[in-house]
Design brief:
Residues 1-116 form the Response regulatory domain. InterPro entries: Bact_response_regulator (IPR050595), CheY-like_superfamily (IPR011006), Sig_transdc_resp-reg_receiver (IPR001789). Keywords: Phosphoprotein. The modification 4-aspartylphosphate is found at residue 49. There is one protein chain. The protein is α/β, with parallel strands linked by helices. It has one domain: Response regulator (Rossmann fold, 3-Layer(aba) Sandwich), CATH 3.40.50. The chain is 42% helix and 15% strand. The chain has helices at residues 8-20, 31-40, 57-66, 84-92, 108-116; strands spanning 2-4, 26-28, 46-48, 75-79, 97-100. Strands 2-1-3-4-5 form a 5-stranded parallel sheet, with helices on both faces. Helix 4 (84-92) links the parallel strand 4 and strand 5. The two termini are 16 Å apart.
């Protein structure tokens, strides 16, 4: 799993929640790093914040879905951007789901699995 979150505290808490839920996590701080990481490693899902430096999450998602090598990678937005138009924009650009911050860290893995249609372990 690739986690893109630029706030160090939120990145650490999210990473710990995911790892406690049995996920292997690579964490990066911006959308440019997401695009670089997907070239070097395979991921089963990408969690994207929207507001990040260099390349924001919406732009990173659009670039991932425009590239034939990465267009089928599931993207889930994990962001404080909660207005209906933002949620709709994220889903229309191909994201599988949209989780709004603050989120329940104890249910995060279950929410991701539900979005991806997986059974909880």
């Amino acid at each position: 799993m690739l986690l893109a979150e630029d706030e160090p505290d939120i990145q650490m808490i999210t990473r710990m929640a995911l790892e406690d839920g049995g996920c292997s996590v690579v964490a990066v701080g911006d959308g440019q790093a997401v695009l670089e990481q997907v070239r070097n490693q395979n991921f089963d899902v990408i969690l994207l914040d929207v507001m990040m430096p260099r390349i924001d999450g919406f732009t990173a998602c659009a670039r991932l879905h425009a590239d034939p090598q990465t267009r089928d990678l599931p993207v889930i937005f994990l962001t404080a951007k909660s207005q209906e138009l933002e949620v709709q924009r994220g889903l229309e650009m191909g994201a599988r789901g949209y989780i709004v911050k603050p989120f329940d860290v104890f249910c995060l893995v279950d929410r991701i699995n539900a979005i991806l249609g997986k059974q909880s372990a």
